[in-house]
Amino acid sequence: MSQDTTNGAGQTRRVVLKISGECFCLPNERGISMESVSLLASQVAAVARKGIQIAVVMGGGNILRGGQFKAVNTGIQESTAHYMGMLATVINGLALQDAIELVGQPTRLMSAFSMDVVAETYIRRRAVRHLEKGRIILLAGGTGSPFVTTDTAAAQRALELSADVLLKATKVDGVYSDDPERNPQAVFYPEIPYEDVLKQNLRIMDKESIAKCAEHKMPIMIFNFRSKGNLERAIMGERVGTLIS
Ligand code: UDP
Known about the structure:
Elements: E1 14-19, H1 34-49, E2 53-58, H2 66-72, H3 78-102, E3 107-111, E4 120-121, H4 124-132, E5 136-140, H5 150-160, E6 165-170, E7 175-176, E8 188-189, E9 191-192, H6 194-199, H7 207-215, E10 220-224, H8 230-235, E11 242-244
Parallel strand pairs: 1-2, 1-6, 2-5, 3-4, 3-5, 6-10, 9-11
Antiparallel strand pairs: 7-8, 10-11
Helix pairs in contact: 1-3, 2-3, 5-7
Uridine-5'-diphosphate is lined by residues 20-21, 59-61, 65-67, 82, 85-86, 88, 142-143, 145-146, 148-153.
């Protein structure tokens, strides 16, 4: 039986997928591992082949996070460090673009700031058109402004592209009451309201992005991308990881 690729309103399902930088490298390493990128690419392409519209927002933490870089480098302005972080997301986007096209799915890399030689500048209506034509769009450069993270960019894009859900691919299984690596008593939440994530200060996404999604009732699903098939299940509306709504 073929899977239903429509949302509740009978339209083609559209998702924004936030992929953290840590998914672009090997566990406990930095930089880019094409092995990891290929794993992402094959999962994203498999879902696009079913007719789901996918916009990917790449993180850059595998290369550089502005706040952390500034903290150990006094000779740089904090804004500059954040722009460096935004550029890191473009590097990840280029790698992911080639990996997805290698497995046969068309893509467009779009950047929040102009980088004409390697990416189209993000224009919402053009992004929608690409999605309607079945192209996977790779949204680099975060919001284009310093002092926020790509989680905020993902929430922003999910809202303006009228996505059905914001999916966040991470290296953990979902939301826990505490860091499960440090606290074996940490409780796993299969679902949790936005308000509780904010109240309990659960650091799964930045607060601004959760608050934005709460305000506009955009559901968020947090899941472990390394478990095979999870991405597909999450996109097809199955419960994997944690649903924040
Ligand atoms: N960044 C920014 N504005 C944005 C998005 C990202 O200044 O709209 C910078 C910020 O310094 C951030 C870095 O880019 O730390 C990399 O993004 P992020 O930390 O979100 O990557 P992830 O943790 O998802 O790998």
